[in-house]
């Protein structure tokens, strides 16, 4: 028996033991319920109160938060009550209960985003199992996070069911205020989505029109001179006979950060229109324009022994990442019959990013030796996914079939220049905490350039067969990828280096319904990822391949809004990209990595405004065969740096009931623990463990008088005990944000 087969056996055995431990109770809940006697709709709990009905951070869209324009792939979660979602199409591109999907998945609902007042996608994922969202400390430049130890930034982020490719600095930033929900699907998903991270994907659902009038305005202020205004309004269009609705969402922020000279400014506006000419046809137009400014560098100089000093790398005269982006797309669904549905999701996006940064390489006596870089990255891409879903019955077996063809093309261009700059004079500096410097920094000439284009066509087919208590999911996909790369100078690019890849990926999963609410499962899936970008010599990277075995148990307590899940997994991936330890602006390819461990999650809604989410992850992430970049030194068997082995997170809220003297008051708090990890891939020094606490206090003024209905004041505090911490990854160290407080005045109608 192979080692991986043995591990699969261990996973299945642990699943069986966990199932046996709770099966007697579950069986008493109705083991005689047949699979064909339940449905997604029947399994959904009652909807949460609409906006203004009661208190709490409810979704202003009203209802259960299901403002999706389409019901299948790309449409977003449904069956939402507070923090709990029962259905998400991300795992199967069909409306399948999360309990019946053969992979681990979590949903972050709009109410949770509201309660925690998240300011980035990293913050949105901070209480989700399997996610490492604090690897790079405080970094407002990117949504940079890991799932099961694998980087997601360039290949693992999807929006409305479509991949959002990113290369180097040209990575789309997502304003969380414009998000309806996030679904985190862990493990390889190439069988449905093609190119992607072996750790999984994060599918972000945009806010979409709903056919009821609503509105919200917010004014926020916080430390570091943070000021922000948000608005979200929508309504059916008068005179359209209920066939047309619009939504307009926007945010404006002007803010400093604790990084000296670092800004975190943003303007975003996202108009959307839904046209529903009949009950069978829905068309939603989704658009957005965004302009943002962030620091050019987020790291601090690393002293010997991998200690993050307080000497900030950035120079106020040359320290900015300016990004401008726009996107336009649509989601179309047409039901030929209730059992035959066609969908098409489309998006075009363009991103233009200009980076100016400085980097401290060493400190000698009272002088810091530095270099700088200027980079202009841009990417434009088009993505489309065509799906046909069919339902049929053959004897005792019920089939849900979905087949499709998707296409993605991107064009990427980089112009860059690097150089040495005058030393930084540290004479007389006694405290780097208060040290702010602005020196003359000459802008380097843009002397190098690279272009890359990629075409990907995927054809996929999935069968979900239900027989008695079994749900068998079979997914297969054939991808054809061509990539062309040229490099040289801005005025003279060399000949194109091309590569063409064709690969079949798939997934097989089996769920067994001990009861409709207690479901053990096991699955095997493969992944394939052509790597975006180029190395320092302008060469494209070798594609990465991998596979995973996973087994687990999912449970929903009948008659409640309480769900839980545990999962064990083992992933192997080849050709992993790493940050170049000699130049933070470049990446290099390393060897194979194995990620194995287990996760546990519990999510609950006890009453309107009262919720709880718990998440635990144990992760063992190691190189199987690799050498340290730039050397021949083996790091096989070493732990991958910067990724904690154990994480725990819990966040809960309590809304005082209407009969309480404290009615209208909502309180909440959270704890985030990250275990130790190594600072570099040579495993020389460990990062410290980190525990942080967050808090929420909010008050709905309708408790004072009904005429104040819709008015809410909210205070969110992050890292409330001001834990001073840092994390080093691949030899670079990043400091975490100090205590941060944001106050909000909100009016909803």
Automatic annotation (TrEMBL):
Subcellular locations according to the entry: Cell outer membrane
Superkingdom, natural source: Bacteria
PROSITE patterns in the cross-refs: TONB_DEPENDENT_REC_3
Membrane association type: Multi-pass membrane protein
Domain TonB-dependent receptor-like beta-barrel: 275-720
Keywords, sorted A to Z: Cell outer membrane, Ion transport, Iron, Iron transport, Membrane, Receptor, Signal, TonB box, Transmembrane, Transmembrane beta strand, Transport
The TonB-dependent receptor plug domain, residue ranges: 98-201
PANTHER family assigned: FERRICHROME IRON RECEPTOR-RELATED, FERRICHROME OUTER MEMBRANE TRANSPORTER_PHAGE RECEPTOR
UniProt record similarity statement: Belongs to the TonB-dependent receptor family.
Name of the featured protein: TonB-dependent siderophore receptor
Organism: Methylobacterium brachiatum
